[in-house]
Design a protein that fits this description.
Layout: E1 15-19, H1 26-40, E2 43-50, H2 60-89, E3 94-99, H3 102-112, E4 116-123, H4 132-137, E5 148-152, H5 157-163
Parallel strand pairs: 1-2, 1-4, 2-3, 4-5
Helix pairs in contact: 1-2, 1-5
Length: 164
């Protein structure tokens, strides 16, 4: 990644990127990011990635229906997350829906928005591990282009308030 971050330059404002997925802990990341946005006068970009699978040509009609349903579900998830952010910080986050590999899409969104200064993820507090995105990204974290904040999924609103 070669794009220079411009988050704090004149005419720009810092944004954090939050992934809205099907995990229970996405709310913790949205809460933290919204509180952060209040503190720094920044914004929030919410990303929902629709993972695509190889599709057999003879099932193209079914694939189109499945894609439409996935896009509808993505819109609903982003509606919930945006409502939550608005309730926390009175902000209207940017919404992005992408298709493909989550890590590739996260990196592409960061590459194409020079104001994104931080990625906020939330970790599953359970014994099954932190979650699929964190597990996958941990392998490339040392070469990641921006800071990554991982919010423990077990934190309460009050505990996040104290940290953000």
């Amino acid at each position: 990644m070669t794009t220079q971050r411009r988050s704090y330059e004149t005419g720009h404002k810092p944004k954090c990127l939050v992934i809205v997925d099907d995990t229970a802990e996405w709310d913790r990341a949205v809460y933290y990011a919204s509180r952060w946005a209040i503190r720094v006068g920044g914004g929030v970009v919410m990303l929902r990635v629709i993972e695509t699978e190889d599709q057999n040509q003879q099932w193209l009609g079914v694939a189109d229906i499945m894609r439409a349903e996935a896009e509808e579900a993505a819109d609903e998830a982003l509606d919930r997350a945006a409502g939550r952010a608005n309730g926390i910080a009175a902000i209207t986050p940017e919404r992005v829906i992408r298709e493909g590999d989550p890590t590739e899409q996260i990196l592409d969104v960061i590459e194409n928005d020079v104001d994104i200064a931080m990625l906020v993820l939330a970790a599953n507090p359970g014994a099954e591990g932190p979650g699929p995105i964190i597990t996958t990204m941990a392998k490339t974290m040392g070469a990641f282009p921006i800071p990554v904040t991982i919010v423990p999924g077990g934190l309460t609103d009050a505990e996040i308030d104290a940290l953000s």
